[in-house]
Design brief:
Number of strands: 14
Domain Metallo-beta-lactamase: 12-205
CATH architecture: 4-Layer Sandwich
Helix content: 25-40%
Structural class: alpha/beta
Protein name: MBL fold metallo-hydrolase
Keywords: Hydrolase, Metal-binding, Zinc
CATH superfamily: Ribonuclease Z/Hydroxyacylglutathione hydrolase-like
Radius of gyration: 17 Å
Largest sheet: 6 strands, mixed
Pfam families: Lactamase_B (PF00753)
Organism: Streptomyces radicis
Distance between the termini: 20 Å
Length: 236
């Protein structure tokens, strides 16, 4: 399995590209600000051929280059419908604090470009793209349309989960922005707790982690476990 990142120019957002191996097709996850040229060089260095852009949610730091990457490679963009409004006009979804900060960063000449080929994600579905099988979990709380992508691993790592901003190492994504909900995030975390302990959590910012580490070290995961039943599942 080949999983690499290109870090965006702002907010440290991690754009992932994922493939079975060098010379294969790949998917691109969460292309943030200023990643298009560096992403192109990175996938070319590995001999990869992008087949889709997958968005964990609609916030601009994760979607800024979605249209550019989609256009550059002639590939569709996938997003949960509950966040589609943020692809039409991303600034309102950032709220009163982050909206103005983004506008100052982007400058007065910036104009949003909406991707032309947007396809809906559905929780519980499986995407078969680039030779990969990606299970989709709808995990609202950070945004109404937040999702996680589940991916089988290899001999060294059994499984991965691209979690976006739902959970970080030791914390969670903000729930006080438009459409956010702490209660929904805790419910989403309860679903995450049902995954094996050795599941690698590929986060949208900063360090990655595992379910096992977050089960004990993350206070929000502990709160989620205490606030309701956790669905049964293997704990590796």
């Amino acid at each position: 399995m080949l999983i690499r990142t290109v870090v965006a120019d702002a907010w440290g957002t991690k754009c992932y590209y994922v493939a079975r191996g060098p010379g294969d097709e790949c998917v691109v996850v969460d292309p943030g600000m200023g990643v298009t040229d560096r992403l192109r060089k990175a996938v070319e260095a590995h001999g990869l051929r992008p087949r889709a852009v997958l968005l964990t949610h609609g916030h601009l730091d994760h979607t800024h280059s979605a249209a550019a990457v989609s256009s550059a490679f002639g590939i569709p963009v996938y997003l949960h419908p509950a966040d589609h409004g943020m692809l039409v006009d991303p600034i309102p979804g950032l709220g009163d604090e982050f909206g103005p900060r983004f506008e100052r960063l982007l400058g007065p000449r910036w104009r949003w470009q909406e991707p032309t080929d947007v396809r809906p994600l559905e929780g519980g579905s499986v995407l078969e793209l680039a030779g990969l099988r990606l299970g989709v979990d709808h995990t609202p709380g950070h945004t109404p349309g937040s999702v996680m992508f589940n991916l089988s691993g290899d001999a060294s790592i059994r499984s991965y989960c691209l979690v976006g901003d739902v959970v970080y190492a030791g914390s969670i994504g903000r729930t006080d922005m438009p459409g956010g909900s702490r209660a929904q995030t805790l419910a989403s975390l309860r679903g995450l707790l049902a995954k094996p302990n050795d599941t690698v959590l590929l986060t949208g910012h900063e360090e990655d982690s595992t379910v096992g580490v977050e089960r004990t070290a993350n206070p929000f995961m502990r709160q989620a476990a205490a606030s309701g039943p956790v669905a049964s599942g293997p704990v590796g």
